[in-house]
What does this fold into?
Amino acid sequence: MMRLWKKAYVALIFLFLYAPIGVLIAQSFNASRYRGHWTGFTLQWYGELFQNEGILEALQNTITIGLSSAAVATLLGLVTCLALRGMGRRRRSVLMGVANIPLLNADIVTGISLMLLFLGLGLRLGYGTILMAHIVFNLPYVILCLMPQMLSLDRNCYDAARDLGATPLMAFRRVVLPELRPSLLAGFMLAFTMSADDFIITHFTKGAGIDTLPTEIYAELKLGIHPEMYALSTLVFVFVLVFAFLLFWNRKRMQIGQSAR
Amino acid sequence: MIKSAAMRHLFALPFLLWAALFIFVPLVFVGWYGLTGGDGQWSLANVGVLLQWEYARALELSILLALVSTLVCLLVSYPLCLILTERQRSHGALIFLLFILPMWMNSLLSTMAWQTILEKNGILNQFLRLLSLPDVTLINTPAAIVIGMIYNFLPYMVLPLYVSLSKINKNVIFAARDLGASSWQTFTRVILPLSLPGAISGITMVFIPSLTTFFISGLLGGNKVLLIGNIVEQEFTMAYDWHLGSGLSLVLMIFIIINMMLTAYFDRSEGQVKK
It folds into this structure.
């Protein structure tokens, strides 16, 4: 009886979380342009998606800004974490607190403050300002992913490499970096995801004439979303779903492999 | 690894410059705009507007809706995470994965899908009619906004709560039961205190975005319900009164700082318990 209640509870939350996604996926196959009206099944929007230049351009901006902001944030995060590792506990916690400000602050305040900065510096809002803003809010995520592993690094390995005649750079590249690779990758992927999904901060730091996918969607909301957008979102969601399951399945198989040994 | 202090400072330099330019200076800008008038003179007028009825009402409603959605998120996630941690580890992790996957759907689109579900002739009402039940009016009400907030921010509560609950050593729970605690006592005296850090960070992560959102209220409140986030957004993108918008942002920052201080306080008292 108890088990049934628990299953029903989990299923109910499941329904709540996936109902809107179901609606969006259904809309991507809906022949009608208007939401909430089902007039028949079609694959038309998937075909037209690849001819819609507005959406494709926004997609391209999202991907390039996501990749480059994640890359810069990861590099900056790595250098910062190296510096933080050598510091005393007090100083480190103060600097970590400063680094976390964009994470804890409300997105709308971060967005506005950066917009005021860029305009105050006389910059024109556009691709460059979006990119800088994304690096700003990506950095804390990278540090969050990287810092625990950085602190648990065994410095004897590095010293041993130095004793055996490696230059500092070589010891770093051959000993420290491989150790950090998983959390660097995790930080990079988290940063890319956050960048690709961000609407609020981009909304305030973008100028006229440039859009990422989220701001393109926001602009379309007033006039009605192009159905191609539903098609694109469905494709992205299915891609992430498959990717997540492959990752999970692979990890589970490795765990089973390890316990069998 | 980095032995000399000079080298360490060199490595810290990029971050310090970065933080000064992109974290500190922007907040100074907000402070300056918020505390000056259009004529460049110091004034408290931009913060003082909260004494006017319409601004006070928006702030009050924002706080109320944020509190409600935070509370619902907490009450919904807690049993969920308990159920998930009871499961076999890999099984629980798989279900957990399914719970955070919806975060990868664009939040504007899924919030708009809620519009399709909740509206007057929407999916929910069509379903109710099928069961010959009366219609419900949710769209353009505060209730719809709360649903949207819960939908968007529930994963932020589930994530830290699940992590802190799954870290609890099962033997501690068995020990409590062995020593004669009832399952209720075990819950209130062992599980609840140990999961507090996760719950606190979940509360912070849901409350702040709920308090400051503007697109959820814009989409599901239909401009009939104005939250403080909507007013700030409009001051910057439509009305172009940066001074007023910054003043209200300063008010929001007060809440954020209170929230951060509470979190720090609970973190510290947690540490003392461990000693």
About this structure: DSSP finds twelve helices and no strands in chain B. Residues 52-240 of chain B form a domain with the MetI-like fold fold (CATH 1.10.3720.10). Chain B touches chain A through 76 residues (CB under 8 Å).
